[in-house]
Amino acid sequence: DRLPLEFTLLQYEPRSWRIADSLLVFLHLVHTLENSWQQELRKEALAAHGDPAKVNFLMSPGVPADLVPGSNAWALGGARTSTHRPLLAGDPHLELSIPSIWYLVHLRGPRLNVTGASIPGLPGVIIGHNERIAWSLTSLQADVQDLYVEKLNPASGRYEFAGQQEQARPERELIRLRGGAAEAMLIWNTRHGPVVAADAGRMLALRWSAYGYDEFRLPILELNRAHNWEEFRAALSRLPGPALNFVYADAAGNIGLQVTGRLPIRRGFDGSLPVDGSSGRFEWEGWIPFDKLPSVFNPASGLIVSANQNSFPPDFPYPVSGYFASPYRFRQIQARLGSKNGWKASEMPSIQTDVYSAFAHFLAQQAVAAYERSGSRDAALSEAVAVFRNWDGQMASGRPAPLLATLLFRRLREAVARRASGAPQPLYASLMAPLAIEKLLRTRPKDWFPDYDKLILDSLREAVREGAGLQGENLARWDYGWYNRIDLNNPVVGRLPLVGKYFNFGPTRMGGSQETVLQKPPGQNFGPSLRMVVDFADLDGSFISIPTGQSGHVLSRHYRDQWKAYLEGRGFPMQFNKVQARQTLEFLPEGQ
Questions:
Q1: Which pLDDT band holds residue 436 (cuts at 50, 70, 90)?
Q2: Which of 282, 407, 439, 531 makes an SS bond possible with 275, Cβ 3.0 to 4.6 Å?
Q3: Hey, is 282 helix, strand or coil?
Q4: Banded model confidence at residue 318, pLDDT cuts 50, 70, 90
């Protein structure tokens, strides 16, 4: 087949695909979902000259969810649906790209009949359903990476461990350059892992659960062939990583959730800060057994929700750290689904595209109350408070209040980080920051700020000034959608002079925020990378969509044919029993 235009433009001739390339695709996925070691350095920097207790409060790994279990995925038992058969919905949030990370397929073969979303380069369907079961997934966001400060000689690779000298293993990576000689890079590997950074004279080695994979068995096809909860869990027990929450439903009427992945057992430390690698006192003690990981089957509520919140119950027998999401998305999904019974598959997209932010709504109400208590007649504040006064908390495009609330949050986040760290411009971007700020504003401890109303109003005044610089002095004309836009550029063809812009997507105004079900953080091309709803009353009535299109070929009619439906929250039929295929591709083993 003809190669895409990008290969011609770059004068690039790809080599044949190898099994090792599939393993690299898998490891890249693991790296995407398990990449928390920089957060340890951020926390360390905050605490360097500040108040450790306050920094720990701001960098909390999360609190247990209101209910167990809890990037969005949920399952409804038959008692909550109009057909009395289970529904399953999933919309994993990832960096959006051209082409999409997902490729939609229906695979048939010996003991195999499965449809859903695959990742090019990996065998099988990652999210989808077969004749009997359906599943989606969210990132667990457990901390499976630790930094070790090594006493290592970078010239010889000798380093200290538990009073003894050990030799690090050298690895030389060749970085090939077009038109020039390859450059070599030396990496020292200690017992804890490779040295990934030299920081303030320190040699930092990274220990990561992925380095402990003793085999690269990918049980995706076993998962695709599973026909019940037991077979489903058996397949997941062989998945080494990444650490995930799998949400499940089946044709027999069952729903469930299973946590997977290799999670280290730590004793005496939580892994949130770099530790001394030379002492021998901060070693992992193996992995939490799969049978001990959180697992829920047919809860009495008839409802399972996972939105990256902490899935571990308070009485979990092992210490677990993680960079879990604040619970606002989880609570909103749970509240929507728990508000009634008789749900239909066609109603699920209304939840997947929900842009209500309980946190932003709370901030707006706090600002209104602080202004009224102050008796201020500041004209700028008066206009801002008027915008907030009757706002419903919807982070929708075309409105000024969501932008004002976003800027107010940023200013408050900067203020609390300065107070905790003592630094004039600290870097603080924890996923739990909204919850930490809400707790402070609700409890108002005196050792943080003497006057919280003043803090809020000063931050609001700064937010108004910042917004005026972005979108003008007329606050009523501000448009959150332009601040929160998506702008997807084709990495090669999109750079062509004159014509390149026609192959890009956007800029497109968007609603949503970090705390809404439709998670779209401002300034990032991040959002639902896939939407799927599976209906066990009618598998052919299930639907799915991806953001751009199925094809990465810029001249294909399938390059952008899902974009409009994606923006509107619509999906396309997942034909399963009554497939009307225009073309099929058949693979035969060698020698057949």
A1: very high
A2: 282
A3: coil
A4: very high
Residues with Cβ < 8 Å from 228, sequence gap 6 or more? 132, 133, 250, 252
Neighbour-count burial of 564, counting CB atoms closer than 10 A to its CB (0-12 exposed, 13-18 middle, 19+ buried): exposed
In 447-539, which ranges are E strands? 486-488, 505-508, 526-528, 531-535
Q: Nearest CA to 74 among 316, 335, 252, 313?
A: 335
Report residue 1 as tokens.
């087949």
Q: Which residues 6+ apart lie within 8 Å of 209 measured at CB?
A: 34, 144, 145, 240, 241, 243, 261, 262, 263, 264, 287
DSSP SS3 for 209: helix
d(CA 177, CA 68): 51
Contact 144, 208 (CB under 8 A): yes
List own/partner pairs for 523-526 with CB under 8 A and 24 or more apart.
523/484, 524/95, 525/95, 525/96, 525/97, 525/486, 525/487, 525/488, 526/93, 526/94, 526/95, 526/96
Q: How far apart are CA 21 and CA 158, in angstroms?
A: 33
Whether the bond between 522 and the residue before it is cis, its omega within 30 degrees of 0, is no
DSSP string, 215-248: ----THHHHHH--SHHHHHHHHTT---S-EEEEE
* Residue with the two structure tokens 């809400």: 438
Which range is least confidently modeled, 26-30, 285-289, 407-411, 481-485?
26-30
Concatenated DSSP letters of 66-84: SSS----EEEE-GGGBTTS
What single string gives the DSSP state of each residue in 249-264?
EETTS-EEEEEES--B
Vertex 369: Cα angle to 366 and 373 (nearest 5): 135
User: Residue 443 belongs to what H/E stretch?
Assistant: helix 433-443
**Mean of all residue pLDDT scores within the chain:** 92
Query: How much is the pLDDT for 70?
Result: 39
- Amino acid identity of residue 274, one-letter, is P
Pair of tokens at residue 170: 């050298």
Q: Is 269 left (phi over 0), alpha (psi -120 to 50) or beta?
A: beta
User: What does the pLDDT look like over 343-388, one tens digit per residue?
Assistant: 999 999 999 999 999 999 999 999 999 999 998 888 889 999 999 9
Answer whether residue 62 shows pLDDT above 70. no
Question: What is the phi/psi pair of residue 29, to 5°?
Answer: -60, -45
User: How far are the Cα atoms of 70, 210, 459, 538 from residue 351, in angstroms, in the given order?
Assistant: 16, 34, 32, 20
Percentage helix, strand, coil for the chain under 3-state DSSP, each rounded to 5: 30, 20, 45
